[in-house]
Amino acid sequence: MSENQQYHSQMDNSTLYSGAQSFLSFLEKGVDPRTGTYSIRISMPEIAVNALAGPDIVLSLSFSAMQNVDLGLGVGWSWGTSRLTPVSKRLTLSNGETHLAVLSVDKIEFPDRKLPTFKAERLENAVLITFRSGRTERLERFDLNDPLSPYVPVEIRSPQGHTMRMAWTSFEGNAALSAVLDHDGRELLRVSRDTLAVTISVATSEGTMAAFKLNLSGDLVSSISLPTPENAAWVLGYHDGILQDARRSSFEVINQ
Fold first, then answer.
1. Helix (H, G, I), strand (E, B) or coil at 20
2. Which residue of 61, 101, 200, 222 is 20 to 30 Å from 77, comparing CA positions?
């Protein structure tokens, strides 16, 4: 069996508790045998933007042991959104593509790109990404005073012209997502943090906000609580600060 075959994310789509699937579609996890690092990806429910007129957006959270900074969600955790990082010359797209990106004053180039799956236009303090579908993402430099500051998505536009905006705030000098708004300014997602937890509230079809929490132990996520009456949760286990496993709150190990 090849290393690629050995390395795969195992999906647990079984019902966690009654109602949990309405808020957390599934949790993927896996261990790369080449590095021994543990990774997690959580897909959130699709957000109905502009009364279902779009643009469609499915946000995800992921944990990587290779990311040793706190982007507002706890060390190692990040949103699956597009991001251009001038320091590493790397463009990561929301569809999972990653490219070497050489940014200059008036253009952006991708020396290693094989297929033209998107177009990129250099703007003042921004980059406009256009996908084959006609969907566009406008990435703006987070800190205008820092030429090496990352570019994060601030507006996503559907082929039909419907828009969605993303608001960002600073957390320990890093760009942290704080809210997602539709064309009329209605809040679709809100992120807040205190010393105990990161709370992520998502708009439901009933017009209410469903909140789940990344519970913190220092700057590490110790558990993930779901918005259910049963207080369903995933409990994360660490050894010497390195994530080793994820367990249901019933303490059934799920990384085997």
1. helix
2. 101
Domain boundaries, the chain: 3-248
CA distance 238 to 246: 9
Residue 166 and residue 81: Cα distance in Å, rounded?
10
* In contact, 175 and 71? CB cutoff 8 Å: yes
Centroid of chain to Cα 128: 19
- Report residue 82 as tokens: 């597009």
Asked whether residue 193 carries a pLDDT value surpassing 60, the answer given is yes
Alpha-carbon distance of 123 to 225, in angstroms, equals 41
> Between vectors from CA 127 to CA 124 and to CA 130, what angle results, nearest 5°?
140
Tens-place pLDDT, residues 161-173: 888 899 999 999 9
Per-residue pLDDT for 119 more than 90?
yes
d(CA 256, CA 253): 7
pLDDT at site 46: 67
Question: Closest Cα to residue 119, out of 111, 131, 107, 110?
Answer: 131
Are 166 and 183 in contact by the 8 Å Cβ rule? The answer is no
Contact 179, 72 (CB under 8 A): no
